[in-house]
């Protein structure tokens, strides 16, 4: 039998999250689940699409548990097929070495990964991460602030996730331009 990909989605505090899971593991995550996100995922994988709740269920359950505060580490097989060797090296270092509630700078992750990629290049790797949240690129920040984020509605999603994890304090009146 040829390889396939199964898609599933789960409702979270940040909206629906779509995942793509192959026989090897989770290889895609998108903040949103509409025709556009599914078309992009299908085009990226170029594999036959199947319905397989047994495959997607554990991934969706862990995402739900993360948002409910019951999960601090995703224990899922990862399918790295949509990444290059350098991306795998950097993202693998992030997945394995930067835990819940921790943050590292782009430069620190570049050094830790041993990939020889400068901070700006690490930012590009984070922006092209096909599995955000599970491979926690939201935990990588600029040396002078949060930096960018390509998931969901951008840096506000990053701030929300870091607040959930306790990396940054929750505030009632905080403007990134003015500070607290």
Give me the number of helical elements. 6
CATH class of the largest domain: Mainly Alpha
The rounded Rg comes to 16 Å
Q: Give the % helix.
A: 25-40%
- Main β sheet profile: 4 strands, mixed
CATH architecture of the largest domain: Orthogonal Bundle
What is the CATH superfamily label of the largest domain?
Answer: Winged helix-like DNA-binding domain superfamily/Winged helix DNA-binding domain
Class by alpha and beta content: alpha/beta
CATH topology tier name of the largest domain: Arc Repressor Mutant, subunit A
Number of strands: 6
* First-to-last CA distance: 57 Å
- Strand order in space, largest sheet: 3-2-1-4
- What is the chain-wise order of helices and strands? EEEHEHHEHHEH
Mean pLDDT: 93
Low-confidence stretches: none
Can you tell me the overall shape? globular
Query: Approximately how much beta-strand content do the residues carry?
Result: 15-25%
What's the structural domain tally? 2
Q: Could you explain the architecture of this structure?
A:
With 180 residues, the chain is an alpha/beta fold. It has 2 domains: 5-67; 85-164, Arc Repressor Mutant, subunit A. Helix content is 37%, strand content 16%. The chain has 6 helices and 6 strands. The protein has helices at 35-45, 53-67, 85-97, 106-113, 119-127, 155-164, and strands at residues 5-12, 15-22, 26-31, 49-50, 104-105, 140-141. It has a 4-stranded mixed sheet with strand order 3-2-1-4, with helices on both faces. Strands 5-6 form a two-stranded parallel sheet. Helix 3 (85-97) crosses helix 4 and helix 4 (106-113) packs across helix 5 (119-127). The protein is globular. The termini are far apart. The model has no long low-confidence stretch (mean pLDDT 93). Belongs to the MGMT family. One of its GO terms (molecular function) is methylated-DNA-[protein]-cysteine S-methyltransferase activity.
């Amino acid at each position: 039998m040829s390889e396939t990909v199964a898609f599933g989605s789960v409702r979270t505090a940040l909206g629906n999250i779509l995942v793509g899971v192959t026989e090897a593991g989770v290889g895609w995550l998108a903040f949103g689940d509409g025709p556009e996100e599914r078309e992009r995922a299908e085009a990226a994988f170029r594999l036959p699409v199947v319905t397989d709740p047994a495959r997607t269920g554990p991934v969706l359950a862990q995402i739900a548990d993360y948002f409910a505060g019951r999960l601090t580490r995703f224990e899922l097989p990862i399918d790295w097929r949509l990444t290059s060797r350098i991306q795998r090296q950097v993202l693998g270092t992030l997945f394995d070495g930067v835990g819940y509630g921790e943050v590292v700078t782009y430069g620190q992750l570049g050094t830790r990964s041993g990939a020889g990629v400068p901070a700006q290049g690490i930012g590009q790797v984070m922006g092209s991460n096909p599995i955000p949240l599970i491979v926690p690129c939201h935990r990588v920040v600029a040396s002078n602030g949060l930096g960018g984020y390509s998931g969901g509605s951008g840096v506000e999603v990053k701030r929300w996730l870091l607040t959930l994890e306790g990396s940054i304090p929750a505030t009632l009146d905080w403007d990134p331009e003015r500070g607290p």
